[in-house]
C-alpha cells in the first residue's frame, strides 16, 4: 500500500498538468462572438460566393423589350460568377437556346459538357446556356473552369418551372417563339453531330 501512494500522487500530478495545458489552448466557450449585423453578413456571403466563382462566362443580359419565355417568366436566376439575379425567361428569349441542366456531382454531365461546349463553337450552333441544379455553386464554377467550358451557366434550380423529371443531365430547346421542348432522343450527348441533329429535329417539330 505504501508503494502505491507515490505512484498515485505522480499520476494525479500529471493529470493536473495536462488539465492546465488543455485549458490554456482550448477555445473559450460561451463567449459572444463579434460579427457584423445579419444583413451585412448575408450580403458579404453572396459577394464572396461570386468571387469564388470567378473565371466563368458572363450570362446574357435581358433586353429591355424582351418578352419572357412563358414557362420561365417568373424565374429569377443568378449567373455563376455574379451576385445579381435576372429574369431568366427574358434573358433566354429572342433566339433559339439550348438549356442544359447539370450538376458537378453528375458524372454523365461531366462527360456531356465538353461536347456541348464544342457544339456551341460550331457553325450554325444555337446559343447554349447551362443551368446548375441542386449543387454548390462554388463546385459548379470549379468544374466549369477545370473543363474550360465557354458557355455561361445560371446557378439556380429552374427544374420545377420546366416540370423536369428528377434526373440529370437534361436538355431543353427554347425556340424563338417562346415555346420550350425537351430533347429526349439522346439521353447523354456523345458528339457534336448528335447535338446538332437533336436540335434540328426539335426545331422542325
Automatic annotation (TrEMBL):
Transmembrane segments: none annotated. GO terms for molecular function: isomerase activity. Its main location: other. InterPro entries: AhpC/TSA, Thioredoxin-like_sf, Thioredoxin_CS, Thioredoxin_domain, Thioredoxin_ResA/DsbE_sf. The keyword Transmembrane applies. It comes from the Bacteria. It is found in: Cell envelope. The keyword Disulfide bond applies. Keywords: Cytochrome c-type biogenesis, Disulfide bond, Isomerase, Redox-active center, Signal-anchor, Transmembrane. Residues 55-204 form the Thioredoxin domain. This is Thiol-disulfide isomerase/thioredoxin.
Amino acid at each position: 500500500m505504501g508503494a502505491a501512494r507515490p505512484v498515485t500522487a505522480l499520476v494525479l500530478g500529471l493529470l493536473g498538468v495536462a488539465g492546465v495545458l488543455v485549458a490554456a489552448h482550448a477555445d473559450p466557450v460561451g463567449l459572444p462572438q463579434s460579427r457584423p449585423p445579419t444583413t451585412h453578413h448575408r450580403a458579404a456571403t453572396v459577394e464572396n460566393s461570386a468571387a469564388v466563382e470567378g473565371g466563368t462566362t458572363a450570362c446574357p443580359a435581358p433586353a429591355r423589350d424582351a418578352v419572357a419565355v412563358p414557362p420561365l417568366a417568373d424565374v429569377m436566376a443568378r449567373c455563376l460568377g455574379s451576385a445579381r439575379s435576372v429574369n431568366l425567361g427574358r434573358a433566354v428569349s429572342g433566339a433559339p437556346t439550348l438549356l442544359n441542366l447539370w450538376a458537378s456531382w453528375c458524372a454523365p454531365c461531366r462527360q456531356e459538357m465538353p461536347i456541348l461546349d464544342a457544339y456551341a463553337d460550331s457553325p450554325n450552333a444555337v446559343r447554349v446556356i447551362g443551368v446548375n441544379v441542386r449543387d454548390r455553386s462554388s463546385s459548379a464554377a470549379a468544374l466549369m473552369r477545370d473543363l474550360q467550358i465557354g458557355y455561361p451557366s445560371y446557378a439556380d434550380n429552374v427544374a420545377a418551372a420546366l416540370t423536369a423529371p428528377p434526373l440529370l443531365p437534361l436538355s431543353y430547346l427554347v425556340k424563338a417563339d417562346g415555346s420550350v421542348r425537351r430533347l429526349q432522343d439522346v439521353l447523354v450527348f456523345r458528339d457534336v453531330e448528335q447535338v446538332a441533329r437533336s436540335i434540328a429535329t426539335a426545331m422542325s417539330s
